[in-house]
Amino acid sequence: MIDLTPFSIVSPTSPSLDTLDQSFMYTQLLKEIILEMKYDDNARKEFIDFYIKSFLDQNSQLKALYQFQQTYEDHSPIWWYTKECILYSTLNKALRTQDTEVIIKMGFFIQDLHKEIEQKHLQNHQTSNMIVYRGQGLSEADFSKIQKNKSGLLSFNNFLSTSVDHDVSLLYADSASQNPDTVGVLFHMELDSTNFSTSYASIRDISNFQSEEEILFSMHSIFRIGDIKQIKHQLCQVNLTLTTDHDPQLKCLTDFIRDEINDSNEWYRLASLMEKMGKFDKALEILDFLLQTTSVDGLGIGHCSRSNTIASIGRVKLHSGNFCGALVDLQKALAIQQKSLPSDHPNLALNYNNIGGLYQSMGNNEIALSYFEKALEIQQKYLPSDHSNLALNYNNIGQLYHSMGNNEMALSYLEKALEIYRKSLPSGHPNLALNYNNIGLLYQSMGNNVMALSYYEKALEIVRKSLPSDHPNLALNYNNIGGAHDSLGNYEMALSYYEKALEIYRKSLPSNHPNLAANYNNIGGLYQSMGNNQMALSYYEKALEIYRKSLPSDHSNLALNYNNIGLLYQLMGNNVMALSYLEKALEIYRKSLPSDHPNLAVNYNNIGVVHYSLGNYEMALSYYEKALEIYRKSLPSDHPNLALNYNNIGQLYQSMGNNEMALSYLEKALEIYRKSLPSDHANLAINYNNIGGVHYSLCNYEMALSYLKKVLEIYRKSLPSDHPNLAANYNNIGAVHNSLGNYAMALSYYEKAREIYRKSLPSDHPNLALNYNNIGQLYQSMGNNEMALSYLEKALEIHRKSLPSDHPNLALNYNNIGELYHSMGNYAMALSYLEKALEIVRKYLPSDHPNLALNYNNIGGVHDSLGNYEMALSYYEKALELIQRVPSKNHPWLAATCGNMALALEELGRYDEAVSYAIQAAEIARSSLGADHVETKTHENHLRELQQLMSLL
User: Could you tell me if 539 and 571 are in contact, meaning their C-beta atoms sit under 8 angstroms apart?
Assistant: First the structure.
């Protein structure tokens, strides 16, 4: 059997060998409060009622409980502890699992037991050193920790039973070693008679097991790990020496937190400790009890105490995500305080801060700021300039400015807070970690993920030392680190941190807490990046369900969630659903945000993206311009979001065939990015990529290549070598080399991309399919149709598994296979694939979308090859009608379609019309692609041939 004694181990490689973890600190503070509590006989009855309600599983225990209730004072606490009854097992399990509810309910017994051990220790203090033993079983993992941490500290956070009888203890250890999963351990414990920090006593005369010569230690005995000797297989002796905790950092933090929770009422101190430990339900239970017992007679003290209790209840409800309940309590406390306290009393400042935090959580930033500023005004009157409460206020205001999109103001306030915290708090205080987290979030929103990660890791180091392992703030920190790794493309690492956060949130928060929803949102975004859209949607919908229950219907987080779902549907090719969610987000933003808020601009941008996908270019442009108008008003002229907007407009003009306008907007974006971002920022790389894309469309292949190589240079510096964005860049460079006829070079880049995708993405990710598509088209260019077909079919297999049956990428894949069969002369197969593509495109695009022209042109081309010239012409005419709707009159597709019509009309003997279209094709190609472009020359050659033919007729 594995012994479940709770202990903590500290490595000798720690900065101090005399260090203990946060669990020791919190249980020590809890023990101090319990030992100072005033208990009466009712405490015993409350424990029994609680036990019957929570644990009772057999009637035989009722007799033991009844005996305990009736005869408790007839025996000593040690006698009851060693008696085979519920006390021993229940108490030790609670101490092992840090079950604060049970520990508090058993507080009266812990107090009595400790006092008896302490009294006996003082009465019978040893004048010489002594050796005691403890035999038990340990799991392989726990024993390995002890082995690896020789010279470190081992703390027992429970009441520890030992014996002066070596043989009895060895018997227990040997028995435990019979279990193949357990190591039997004989602890050999040397006790220094001059060490008065830990109470222990012989209980032979009281114990129910007198033959064991038992020595019982009170809670929090600390030992130094010495030599470890193997007695036999699976049985070892571990030498321990009783010591004390001399860790100055932990003592400083413990003293500071002890002062923070200090109050003349032990129950209030206990509630404050529960709040700091993240045990919000327990804190509320205690505060509710206090509220019922708080006197309201007279003025001053009674009213102040009552208002503080109500304010504390409101604050805990805020942490628990119960915003409506928190608002009622905080406003009630404020009303009492405003009647009974001067208008500039420090308690009012604390409450203003809490109310400000509540309004911020509810998405009402303007009201939040007004409360934070009221608090700040009071605090600046009464507090020294380096007081930690002032820093807390600066931190809140900085966080608020961040959420309002004012990063410059945010950073100034957060740095003020940091400066004060470093002066006034112990280096391991949780508030310092909170500040590091907020600065990290700010840097992440500015695109500096490496800097963000450094702050998150500073925060994590503190939080791990200063908070319980299941505290929500630890989860918040894991979430933030996950977000930074997500942005850096370290998806597996990101997921591991998100899941750590999720595990804590599920244990420590109500199931409808907004932080849990934020975590689901993050995991959804990660799965979206990994190409698992169904998993992404399921997490977004979990988040949405929580937000709908816990937040006002016009909260900005709800809008953010609608935005995420909308963008996911757009990615999945369901633009109608995408638009419906984005418009829901827009409705909320219009109600809850100022008309020039950057989040509103982000939403307009997203709606513009969907209209762009739908081919509603004019509508897309109108939304992009709305976003641009807001950004110009609300952001500095060199803000990256403004550049992002220019980028979108540039891509739109490129799709409209207006490459000149496209380049002008993309270069505006580039100018901003160069001023406002580090030279290796990902957004700068995206911008170079887009400019390279325009040059590629213009067939300026060398220029395109130069921009794509700039992208590559940035990605190699700023991203891991297996990041998917690097693979996308290799793909693009490969495409340019393909167009230049450098087939071997193109293949090498495509294969680099494939290698990364295989390492970093699931085997059915759409990006891998895109890569196979590119390789397939390359082999087609090289005339290797068999290899081309095998790669295109691999792509098709992935698309069929990972995408809906009507997804645009599936249509693109069918189109490519159809074109390959066309080039192979297999016209029947070509038509079947091209018609499948057309069927999909007609479902997700409006009937007048320009992209349909590509499909009509391709199908027309097959009919042309089959000699069905009338049929070919009808498809070309459909294509022409659609392309002519594009605002740009120089679109390259227009030249290609006019050229196709000229060829079909020539075959039909309609030479005058053929010449007319050939002229248009040559002129448009010359205008949009340049006089030296191969397509321009092809159209001009055909025109000359037609004119010569006409001259002969």
Answer: no
